[in-house]
Amino acid sequence: MEEVDKILIHALKQVGTEVSEETDSVKQFSSELIVEAVVRCIRVIEPGLGSPLPTSLPPGMSARFRVGMSLAQACQDIGYKGEIGYQTFLYSNEPEIRSLLMFLVEKLPRESAEASDQPTGKSVVLQRAIAAAIKAQLVVPWLPPNCRLPLHGETQSPGSLHSFHAQPLSLPHCTKGPGKNQLKEVQDYQRDILPPVTAQPSHHASVVASILEQHTAELSAAQEWDNEWNSQGLLSRLTPQEYCSRKLTRLRKRIEEQLRSAALPSAESAFGGPRSTSDLSDLLQAFRGSTPSDHILTKGTHFTHTQKFTFTQQQQAAAVTRPSITAGPQSESDIQLCQQEEQLSLQQQFQQLCSDVEQLAADMKHMSVTNAQVLDELKQRDLGNSENEEKMQVKKKTIDLLPDADNNLLKLQVLVEASAKRVVNLASQWEKHRAPLIDEHRRLKEICSNQDLESSRKLSEIKSLHDKIRVSTEEAKKKEEIYKQLVTELENLPQDASRSAYTQRILEIVSNIKKQKEEITKILSDTKELQKEINSLTGKLDRTFAVTDELVFKDAKKDESVRKSYKYLAALHENCNQLIQTIEDTGTILREIRDLEEQIETENGSKTVANLERILEDYKAIRQENSALAAKVREG
Amino acid sequence: MVVLLNRLPVSECLKLCHRVVDGLCGREPPHRGDHGASWSLEEWLELLDSLTALFRRAVGSNSSDEEVLAGLADVDSSHAESVLSVLRARREEIRDALLDRTNSISSATLQDFDWQLKLALSSDKISSLHTPLLSLSLDVRENRALRSVTMEMNREELNTLISSLEAANKVVLQLK
Fold it and tell me: pTM here?
């Protein structure tokens, strides 16, 4: 019972009852304490019911009686099924109070238990923290700026907010490792001139932002590379550097294609105009930064070359024509006229020249095309020519050999045979060489395919390992998070250390109960066996008695002495029956005695005598109060 | 107009060149006041422009040391040497900055962004609103001028924005 009382007292203390340290069982509870505990519990369970009830007993006896009645009523309203009345509180007995308090404590709402059962996660904890912070800020009243204490500055003054602006930082990277030895100038720069990171941004406020930004950028780049390498890079069976360079060339080719396809149509549509080239050069210039154009087009396209060429030609032509015309001084009007004429003629000339140039350009193009065609034709003709020459030589030789036909035929046959032999010989030699070579080839091929298989197997192994690593790191992270969270939760939990003790105690009690149950079943089976034995014995007895009775009765008719013995037998039987009856009666009486003793004990436990005395005293007090009141009425 | 460098001692010249490169890489450019009254305003601007152009050209066309020195023919040899050392030390950084410039070839590029989460407690019509609002400000560089675009979104609008940005990212990934 002590454990139960401890739990009860702990719960009552949490509700707000002031239980002194010395009281550690319900037996020591005074009436005042009981009333206070019950009222506080009712207030927590149902505030509407509990709020009109006082937490302490009033001095007057009749008032106490009334408080007791209302408390009993409230307990019944909540749902207490046991016997309850004013006497429960005023003249307490231990078991009743204990059962009442247990009922009330069980009815108490369990916020903390529900809260800890909620699904947990890092985000949940964070959200709870955010919600708590916002709630706290909402509770704080708004103050005019002049009345603000430094305490409020964080949440209420907008001055402390900086916008988040990042600036590029320059950091000497130590991650590259010692293998890549840097230039001496770079080291000098980093040692002597590069300012520390905190001094690099122009505003002090953007230091944090810049560092965060830099870090995020590097981290995400590393992650992306890791992802790509694991998904595609490993499969390509290249070293990381090779993979990178290959990707770079692929991308370059793509960009080049895109640019070319975008630039070509405009260039073709405005053939000869300076617009397209300037566009292209602009584009190129923008790609190289704003360097002056002279430095860029070191390697011009075919198109720009032709354009340059035509323009320079034109300029040269103009330079040639100018001095020849501006000769011969004349009078001013003449000069003017002359000049106008000259201008006109020059313009005409210029236009003519322009058209000439265009025509010439067109002609040139045409010519170049025809030239190419003619060259092709020439080549073909040359080829045909040489073929024909060869044919002619063969025919010439045959004509030379014709006169001595038979001889030459024989010679030829000999030659043919010899060459056939040679061919056979060579073929056999070739076969000899070929066989080992082919074997070698096959062997190598096999090795190659084996290696291929091996490498692909290893690749898949590596991949699965990577996956495993990822999965396990994720798991580890998750578990670590859960661990941290649980630790924080544990710290946040109220420190009632008796929790584990309770559970241990409960387990002990359960095991005790088990043991007791076992013993009870043992005893039960024992009694059953005994009963069986008794039954069989009584049956045996009855039967033997009947048989003896019959035998003796038969003989008793003939013999006098036997009749006597029959009488004795009957008497013996009767006496034995009586004896058994008496033993059974004694057993029942003993049981009754035990029951009565128990009853006496319980009656003693409920302090009946003391309570009766108290009731008598209270009765006297009420009578005194009544008589005093009656006297007052009479006086009044 | 790099000749104007000759008016400065060599150590100062080194520092100035580093500051010029800093400006090129998006950090704080040098101030005229820090280097005394060696130049008039016009000369100062000219010097800055020519130095910046020099660095850009040298890194952009990947020219060798001899080519750079040829471009610095009219400067003292010691000054030219210091400029060259600055170039060697900062080549990677300048290259990165130029690449960055090339990447932002389109007419408007996103330079930076910032966000704030606000909780609207009430409005002029509803006394208890409790709606979270996100105010997002984008710093957009448009024709070299920085313009700030600010917008405020509720939860659904933010989700729409994020999903459209994710779709854009997918397209970019396909290009790779």
Answer: 0.45
| A205 vs A508, residue with greater confidence | A508
Mean pLDDT rounded to a whole number for chain B: 84
By DSSP bridging, strand B108-120 and strand B131-142 are: antiparallel
φ, ψ of residue B119 to 5 degrees: the values are -115, 110
Distance CA A618, CA A62 (A): 9
What the block records as the tokens of A184 is 């001496």
Question: What is the ipTM metric for this complex?
Answer: 0.80
Q: Is B60 on the interface with A (CB under 8 A)?
A: yes
Inter-chain residue contact A295 with B57, CB threshold 8 Å: yes
Backbone angles phi, psi at A41, to 5 degrees: -60, -45
Q: With CA atoms as reference, report the closest residue to B84 among B112, B114, B58.
A: B58
User: Which has the closest alpha carbon to A251: B118, B174, B130?
Assistant: B174
Distances (CA, A) of B32 to B6, B12, B19, B39, B42: 16, 13, 11, 9, 11
**What is the largest distance, in Å, between two alpha-carbon atoms of chain A?**
207
- Cα A66 from Cα A86, distance rounded (Å): 8
DSSP 8-state code for residue B69: H
- Pair A297, A284: CB distance under 8 Å: yes
Rg (alpha carbons) of chain A, rounded to whole number:
60
Q: Is A324 on the interface with B (CB under 8 A)?
A: no
Q: Which amino acid is at A621?
A: A
The C-alpha atoms of residue B15 and residue B18 are separated, in whole angstroms, by 5
Q: In whole angstroms, how far apart are CA A200 and each of A502, B33, B91?
A: 62, 19, 19
Assign A52 a pLDDT band (cuts: 50, 70, 90). confident
- Round to whole Å and give the CA distance between A108 and A37: 12
Give the pLDDT of residue A113.
46
Residue B133's SS3 state is strand
User: Taking a C-beta distance cutoff of 8 angstroms, is the pair A24, A18 a contact?
Assistant: no
Q: Does A167 touch chain B (CB under 8 A)?
A: yes
- Total Cβ atoms within 10 A of residue A86: 17
Q: Which of A185, A202, A254 sits opposite B28 (nearest CB)?
A: A202
| CATH pick for B108-175 out of 1.25.40, 3.40.50, 3.90.550, 3.10.450 | 3.10.450
CA atoms within 13 A on the CB side of A168: 15
Q: Which of A134, A168, A287 is closest, CB to CB, to B27?
A: A168
| Calpha distance B27→A306 (Å, rounded) | 44
Amino acid of residue A183? L
- Give CA–CA dist A126/A133, Å, rounded: 10
Q: In the beta sheet, which residues pair with residue B118?
A: B133
Question: What is the Cα–Cα distance from A193 to A186, expressed in whole angstroms?
Answer: 10
Pairing of strands B145-153, B108-120: unpaired
The Cα A24–Cα A22 span in angstroms is 6
